[in-house]
Write a sequence for this structure.
């Protein structure tokens, strides 16, 4: 339920059965019974056949519309002989419908620039099935919405259940099942004994293999009716136009009054204590989670929102009391599934006796709160803390994020609190919370605990600890805490020391003087919305402002030069130089003062180095740009030296050298880690191997002055440095400050030597196997590696090759042959300085299918080498790339812009080409791709790294 919200206040309108949440729902009720308003501009209604719709115009990202069809139907509705059908039906929606036979539906949407799996997908849960489409939507191509609604119509009433195709799809779903992981050791405990535990959406392998077209049709006809469906549209749309299209295309589906009404199934657990335990050989402490299932607080009304805040106050109250009493217990209260929240007390202890002590003490505190409530001074602090977090959300959100909220609104009933006057009403009610009200919440939880409780116990494998906890013992220990003689809680207000404001040191506060003459060149990249400035000292600035809410500047300083540019003796002599020098802070500011100033001014900074690049990451509020730039400048040019910490750290490293922890031993034999290490060595990712030559003698000769000299030569060379600025900041104010600050850096007379020799990729076939994997499953990585000339167009060509390989592998291995579920193709490349790439095709298959899969892969590659792909297929991929770029690199994506610009710099790609992205794409031809495939994918030079349980 993540962000659950539903809105039932529907107001009849006179056009197309319109129900609007505009003015009527915008009128905030001052009664707690008043419903929380939907997002501003939301329109909700039903067509005459019962189909529900929600529409919200939204401008972010541009040229985009998110469409969802939410069926209030999932695996819970399956009969005993239909288990797995809800999920299987979701698969059938993409393999043939009345207007989109076979793959036509996916082909159409991919032709619009969308990608299957990312923009075209579906999900089946216990109580819902969600089909989603992320559409590119332009004013001159509005008919895409008509076709989209036609696809929704087909999904709702015209899926084709071809028996042969259904049989083939069984294998695909079985492979999906084999790759599915719960990622929770206590999943069966938390699920309980109820219909949810019996109706896992995927079903079992036996369930899947028993499904045929007739069973699917029966489930489909019974549950896929308009009244069980909601169509959700969020994006740059006209509401009246959308409703007209919905009425014309989906409104003509007959209503079905014979459909069975949906049954709500509660989560339930066996009475009393439900116990589950596991052994953990890695942990050093035992862990016990006491889980109290209780009814979810569905946030429909304003009063519901108040009650939710009070539950959070209770969890905070217990957390703070536990901490004050040195009880090692984390407290949480979150939605788990269906109508169930889990209130969790999570304990850690060094022994069974320690755990019992924590459990008993926590019990006493819970019963103290239940018996005596909360004293006024403690209550006021709890209220103040909650009010800090309870603020209106009036920011503009991305359409996909809004859809996530709306989906839970449709299926669960919870509304998101956002409107200022409604938030204010809730704040007023929270401020009037009494100790007795929190006392009642605690009593309610203890009542739930007496009815049923879950114990999730993880114990350390320790032969000296013979007595482990049991459910009976845990219950007994809890009862001891309840029976302790209790007195009202004495709250000790933490003394709020008013910290005197620290004067920011002059080296950080004083702005540098801007001189236009320090600029060598300046270029605006209109399509990117970015600006590039090159200074006379060689430093390059790239600025890309965005509109995120918190008005933060994010800075990345990235420069060529890393550990692999050094010879092995120098790598040892300069071992971990950046880390050791970083401990010294700044030469002009004491470390304690620097930490206090950074906290006070909300500055952050970290430095690092890898094989070929060094970088500094920093951020600050937009109003602190002077302090940010000065901090970065001082860190690069005038780092401090902390001799005491350096000597202590080296001593510790010498003591620990060669020691192997239990985790190290486990990782040393981890199959996935061994496979990754083998691949890294083959493709040139393991170029710095100095650590294996590290000795105590080497460590003892490390000299902090030598390390600092190297650090300054590395970071303070402006000719190799690019500074990237992203975030919500005024460029007219920030750019002159950045120029003035970084123009102070001097060109070095003897820069560090760099190793710009491309990495040599071996041409011989290599095969390496490891023991591991699932029963009767072999996982194989086929790797094709080589060198390339860095440029944006070549990077795009390699991405096209990756996508073509992915398409062929899916069509042949999954759809045609049904040998695998999710084969995937990855591309990795490093432009500067290694100029290397590798494609990796990863396939998990039954052991007996390995040779067949390998033959098919060889055929796929041979066909791509022999014939160029079609112009239409290439055009479809080009549209997909354009759509992806516009979708991901939007005006509200500072992190994505930072990553994209860093990647561009490190791969030797130009802003000029990036600004003409569409033109770079258009220059790529099928023949160029064919030529590159022949050069880059050579079957006889493949690397094969696999794991299997076969001997």
């Amino acid at each position: 339920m993540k962000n659950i919200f539903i809105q039932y206040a529907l107001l009849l309108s006179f056009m197309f059965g319109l129900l609007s949440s505009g003015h009527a729902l915008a009128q905030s009720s001052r009664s707690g019974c008043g419903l929380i308003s939907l997002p501003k501009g939301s329109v909700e209604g039903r067509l005459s056949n019962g189909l529900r719709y929600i529409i919200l115009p939204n401008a972010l990202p541009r040229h985009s519309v998110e469409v969802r069809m939410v069926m209030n139907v999932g695996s819970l509705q399956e009969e005993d002989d239909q288990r797995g059908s809800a999920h299987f039906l979701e698969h059938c929606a993409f393999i043939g419908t009345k207007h989109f036979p076979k793959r036509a539906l996916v082909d159409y949407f991919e032709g619009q620039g969308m990608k299957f799996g990312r923009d075209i997908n579906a999900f089946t849960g216990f109580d819902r099935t969600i089909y989603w489409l992320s559409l590119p939507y332009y004013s001159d191509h509005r008919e895409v919405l008509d076709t989209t609604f036609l696809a929704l119509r087909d999904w709702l009433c015209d899926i084709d259940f071809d028996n042969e195709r259904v049989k083939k799809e069984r294998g695909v779903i079985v492979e999906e099942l084999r790759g599915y992981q719960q990622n929770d050791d206590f999943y069966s405990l938390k699920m309980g004994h109820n219909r949810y535990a019996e109706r896992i959406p995927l079903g079992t392998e036996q369930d899947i293999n028993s499904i045929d077209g007739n069973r699917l049709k029966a489930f489909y006809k019974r549950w896929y009716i308009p009244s069980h469906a909601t169509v959700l549209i969020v994006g740059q749309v006209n509401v009246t136009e959308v409703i007209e299209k919905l009425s014309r295309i989906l409104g003509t589906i007959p209503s079905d009054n014979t459909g069975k009404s949906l049954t709500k199934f509660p989560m339930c657990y066996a009475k009393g204590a439900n116990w589950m335990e596991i052994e953990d050989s890695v942990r050093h402490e035992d862990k016990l989670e006491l889980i109290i299932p209780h009814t979810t607080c569905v946030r429909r009304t304003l009063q519901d929102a108040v009650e939710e805040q009070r539950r959070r106050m209770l969890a905070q109250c217990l957390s703070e009391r536990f901490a004050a009493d040195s009880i090692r217990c984390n407290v949480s209260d979150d939605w788990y599934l269906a109508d169930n929240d889990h209130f969790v007390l999570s304990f850690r202890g060094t022994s069974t006796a320690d755990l019992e002590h924590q459990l008993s003490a926590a019990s006493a505190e819970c019963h103290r709160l239940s018996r005596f409530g909360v004293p006024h001074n403690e209550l006021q602090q709890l209220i103040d803390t909650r009010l800090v977090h309870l603020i209106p959300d009036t920011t503009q959100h991305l359409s996909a994020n809004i859809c996530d909220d709306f989906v839970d609104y449709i299926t669960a009933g919870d509304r998101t609190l956002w409107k200022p006057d409604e938030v204010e009403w809730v704040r007023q009610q929270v401020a009037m919370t009494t100790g007795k009200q929190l006392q009642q919440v605690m009593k309610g939880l203890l009542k739930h605990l007496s009815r049923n409780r879950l114990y999730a116990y993880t114990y350390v494998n320790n032969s000296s600890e013979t007595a482990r906890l049991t459910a009976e013992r845990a219950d007994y220990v809890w009862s001891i805490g309840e029976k302790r003689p209790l007195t009202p809680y004495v709250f000790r207000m933490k003394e709020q020391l008013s910290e005197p404001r620290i004067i920011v040191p002059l080296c950080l506060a004083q702005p540098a003087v801007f001189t236009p003459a320090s600029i060598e060149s300046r270029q605006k990249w209109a399509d990117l919305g970015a600006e590039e400035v090159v200074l006379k000292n060689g430093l390059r600035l790239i600025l890309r402002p965005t509109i995120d809410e918190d008005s933060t500047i994010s800075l990345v300083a990235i420069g060529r030069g890393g550990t692999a540019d050094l010879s092995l003796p120098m790598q040892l002599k300069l071992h971990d130089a950046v880390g050791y020098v970083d401990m010294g802070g700044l030469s002009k500011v004491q470390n304690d003062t620097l930490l206090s100033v950074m906290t006070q001014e909300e500055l952050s900074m970290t430095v690092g180095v890898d094989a070929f690049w060094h970088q500094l990451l920093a951020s600050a509020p937009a109003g602190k740009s002077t302090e940010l730039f000065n901090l970065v400048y001082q860190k690069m040019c005038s780092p401090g030296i902390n001799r005491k910490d350096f000597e202590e750290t080296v001593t510790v490293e010498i003591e620990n050298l060669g020691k192997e922890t239990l985790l190290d031993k486990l990782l040393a034999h981890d199959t996935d880690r061994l496979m990754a290490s083998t691949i890294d060595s083959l493709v040139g990712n393991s170029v710095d191997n100095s650590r294996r030559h590290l000795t105590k003698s080497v460590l003892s000769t490390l000299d902090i002055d030598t390390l600092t000299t190297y650090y300054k030569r590395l970071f303070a060379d402006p000719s190799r440095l690019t500074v990237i600025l992203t975030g919500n900041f005024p460029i007219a104010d920030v750019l002159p400050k950045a120029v003035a600050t970084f123009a102070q850096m001097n060109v070095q007379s003897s820069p560090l030597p760099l190793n710009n020799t491309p990495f040599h990729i071996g041409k011989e076939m290599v095969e390496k196997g490891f023991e591991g994997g699932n029963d009767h499953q072999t996982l194989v990585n086929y790797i094709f590696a080589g060198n390339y000339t860095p440029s944006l167009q070549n990077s795009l060509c390699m991405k096209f090759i990756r996508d073509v390989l992915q398409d062929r592998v899916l069509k042949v291995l999954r759809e045609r042959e049904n040998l695998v579920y999710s084969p995937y193709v990855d591309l990795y490349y490093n432009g500067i300085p290694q100029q290397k790439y590798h494609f990796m095709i990863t396939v998990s298959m039954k052991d007996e299918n390995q040779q067949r899969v390998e033959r098919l892969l060889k055929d796929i590659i041979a066909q791509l080498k022999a014939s160029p792909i079609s112009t239409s297929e290439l055009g479809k991929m080009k549209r997909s790339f354009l759509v992806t770029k516009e979708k991901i690199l939007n005006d509200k994506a500072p992190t994505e812009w930072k990553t994209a610009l860093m990647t561009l710099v490190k791969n030797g790609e130009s802003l000029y080409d990036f600004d003409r992205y569409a033109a770079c794409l258009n220059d790529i031809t099928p023949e160029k791709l064919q030529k590159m495939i022949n050069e880059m994918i050579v079957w006889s030079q493949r690397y094969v790294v696999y794991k299997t349980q076969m001997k």
Notes: DSSP finds 35 helices and 23 strands in the chain.
